[in-house]
Specification:
Number of domains: 2
Order of helices and strands: HHHHEHEHEHEHEH
Mean pLDDT: 95
Number of helices: 9
Bound molecules: CO-5-methoxybenzimidazolylcobamide
Strand order of the largest sheet: 2-1-3-4-5
Shape: globular
CATH class of the largest domain: Alpha Beta
CATH topology of the largest domain: Rossmann fold
Radius of gyration: 17 Å
Helix content: 55-70%
Number of strands: 5
Strand content: 5-15%
CATH superfamily of the largest domain: Cobalamin-binding domain
Length: 211
């Protein structure tokens, strides 16, 4: 057992091995926070880096994210016990009228892999539901995904609802999805745009001033 073995298992998308090695490490007394911060998160950071430079593709990123989720199943209750702090909280959802959630799920997994707590509202999320989730969970960041040119308008409507609820100053907004662009993000007044799941953690961290 070593943290390096867990790092390799996550990096290479070997879920069974990631889970088994994580359990072995936990049983040997390694702190869950160390497993997360010294093995799992660095592996997912590397996955994101490789994706951004075109050395990996979506399916490979997905299997690595699943391996990370496998390890997290074991670590999550222990991290709560150890009171290990996450680096921030993200509420994420696919906007109203849009049922596409594969990309959003991948972004959520990569953000979780980077150390964020994720509150996933699912797909077809109405503006009022985003507002209610911001009021309830007080996230640092709200992420909206849209895959249809027609549902890009729902991003604007959700931004309006957030403004009307007078909570715009309390959160950073990051948007993405195949038809979404930086230009559109500027137009609707979002704080950030991420082109893909590999770059999303970097964009969100930069907005929060996290190294
Ligand atoms: Co739909 N669909 N679909 N579809 N579908 C597209 C998006 C489409 C491009 C296909 C096409 O015509 N070539 C087209 C949209 C055209 C447009 O508006 N520009 C389309 C259409 C038209 C439709 C329907 C209207 C079809 C119909 O019924 N006539 C319908 C709409 C239903 C609805 O939403 N109301 C529909 C339905 C569906 C299914 C339900 C069958 C299914 C979705 C299943 C699901 O998600 N659970 C589906 C699928 C699978 C697709 C395609 C084939 C694949 C989408 C996908 O998962 N890609 C898609 C065509 C295509 O992309 N080749 C298509 C993989 C995923 C990893 O990538 O989602 O782009 P992506 O996410 C990326 C980035 O965009 C980014 O990071 C992700 C990972 O790198 N990203 C973010 C995404 N969200 C982000 C959020 C961020 C940051 C980055 O910050 C918060």
């Amino acid at each position: 057992m070593s943290l390096e073995t867990i790092y390799d298992a996550v990096l290479n998308g070997k879920m069974k091995e990631a889970k088994a090695e994580t359990q072995i490490a936990v049983d040997a007394g390694v702190a869950a926070g160390d497993i997360l911060h010294k093995a799992c998160i660095p592996a997912m950071t590397e996955v994101g880096r490789q994706f951004e430079i075109g050395e990996r593709f979506v399916p490979e990123m997905l299997i690595a994210a699943r391996a990370m989720s496998g390890a997290l199943e074991i670590l999550r209750p222990l991290l709560i016990e150890e009171k290990v702090e996450t680096i921030g909280k993200v509420v994420i959802g696919t906007v109203a009228g849009d049922l596409h959630d594969i990309g959003k799920n991948l972004v959520a997994m990569m953000l979780e892999g980077a150390g964020f707590e994720i509150i996933d509202l699912g797909n077809d999320v109405a503006p009022e539901k985003f507002v209610a989730a911001i009021e309830e969970h007080k996230p640092d960041v709200v992420g909206m995904s849209a895959l249809l040119t027609t549902t890009m308008a729902s991003i604007g409507k959700t931004m309006d609802a957030i403004l009307r609820a007078e909570i715009r100053d309390e959160v950073k907004v990051v948007i993405g999805g195949a038809p979404v662009t930086q230009e559109f993000a500027d137009k609707v007044g979002a704080d950030g745009f991420a082109a893909d799941a590999g770059s999303a953690p970097r964009v969100v961290k930069a907005l929060l001033g996290i190294e």
